Amino acid sequence: xxxxxxxxxxxxxxxxxESERDSQLIYGEELKVISTHxxxxxxxxxxxxxxxxxxxxxxxxxxxxxxxxxxYIAETARFPFGSYVSREDVNKxxxxxxxxxxxxxxxxxxxxxxxxxxxxxxxxxxxSDFGFDCSGFVQRLYRFIGKELPRNADWQRDFTADVPxxxxxxxxxxxxxxxxxxxxxxxxxxxxxxxxxxxxxxxxLSDGSKYSRELLSIFEKIGRVDxxx
Length: 229
Hints:
There is one protein chain. Helices cover 17% and strands 36% of the residues. The protein has helices spanning 87-93, 110-114, 134-144, 153-159, 210-217, and strands at 2-4, 8-12, 21-26, 30-37, 40-44, 50-54, 58-60, 66-68, 72-73, 78-79, 84-85, 100-102, 127-128, 131-132, 161-163, 174-177, 180-186, 189-194, 199-204, 219-224. A hairpin with a 2-residue loop joins β13 (127-128) and β14. The termini are far apart.
């Protein structure tokens, strides 16, 4: 089994450092190695996205037993929220018990989790609490509770079930705008990684502000990850 062996690993369009970052995988995430090209390997993540990652960041090892409920700084390494760690890692890095939960524990609320990331910087292609983009943020949250979303906002839009208007929306639904996705918190409020604030922030879509009006002008749909509406 192959895993990511660094805090955050970039996935790039081409096998070179100057290439655009398409996405990221974080410590302990499982991946497939399709082929190796010099310093880079063509890999595939659990969401099916393929791209190039530095070969030295790909490691093999024992299955992961836990995931982290919060980021953690060890003496020699940093681990973002959601990192997947083995029992050997626990012994090596001394993770406190209160931030560990078993891999199969999905009893978490996405809206409640999301509020812990307010102020995290916006990062194109980012999927960790070192920096998120809009779709990477909602994907990371839903992955933590065991629901796998496609990587990009338009793929997530097509993947989710239609919700017929804000009056039927519930916290945890996804609100799609042109080239953008946000998480619905209720009462017309959303939380999202966005370039307007250059961070994860909340927006009240009913406040009449210029930004809210701009978002509503490019609104596309509300989607539900649980398709049993």
